[in-house]
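step: validate -> pass
step: tokenize input -> pass
step: predict -> running
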Amino acid sequence: MANLVTSLCCVVLAAVVVVYAQKRTQLAGREQYQEIGRDVTMQCGKLENNTTVSWKVNGTDVMAQHRLEGPRLILSKVNLHHNGRYSCFEEPAGEKRDYISLYVGLPPSKPIVNCRSNNYPKSFYCSWHVLETHIPTFFEVDVQHNQQTLDVNRDPVHKNRCRVEFPEVFSTSPYKVNVTAFNALGKAFTTHSFEEFSIVKPDPPEGVTAKPIRSNPRRLEVSWRSPSTWPDIESFPLKYFLRYRPVIQEQWQHQVELSDSTSHIITDALAGKEYVIQVAAKDTEIGTWSDWSVPFHATPWIDDPLPITPTTEVDTPTETRTSPIPSSNAPQKAEPPVGRAARVFTFFSPLLLGMLLLFI
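step: predict -> pass
step: emit ->
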């Protein structure tokens, strides 16, 4: 008898486990993606077509334009406002049967790819971007040179960037970079081809400064350093481009192309005017000019005002009199308060003395 009871308990327990597992499977939830502007149909689990269900989105009734077809919810021309978690409930008991996380977005466009070497001849990097998709989008990158696949080092911070080492220097064979963008709604790819020399572009010069030259009100001594990212300045020298203008002007006064020198003296500055100065760099043989450096502001030498000393002649105003008697129309010179008080005391002193004698 005991064995029979034990067997029945095991059977009941197994049935409970099966039912619980089925419910867990039904409520596991899933993600669903749909393109902006299209209709989307969401199925409530594996319920039969004649089952009546109700739907909620983020815990509230579905207010967007929709229709119900048995266990299915159909939303019309979805947009970003339709994003959310949709839950379905079997009627009439109202038991929750399923939920779907809806994400509305776009398939990726063709990636726009740009490649550049700012540390030639060590390596180059490529970056790319696509139009906003509103849903997670991923990228695959493949780089070919001389029918060989090169190692691609993906940037650990920027998902849309990678770096590739040059397999050789001064190669005339083109490079091909294939970038494929894909997400839950589709994929697109772009092939970008270039020659080695065309992508060499240094970073801007660093530490640009300018200082006035003593007693030279039209000169500024400008200096700078080559970009720290440029690895071999001796084997691959840079030339520089200098531009400057007064702050009060919008047009650049002069633009000067220089050799590999990292300094230059401006000789035609406007005296006393504040200047804006920038420098760009370029490999002497290949590539393109860098971006401009951070603007630096400087003013040429301004002489100190002449100090006043005992030997310095200083113009002082002199008083002139046209008549010993001031004119009645001319303002009278104010008397010192002390002198006026003295005359008043002199006038009243005999009277005060007489009054004192009467009391005595």
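step: describe -> The longest strand covers residues 95-105.
step: cleanup -> pass
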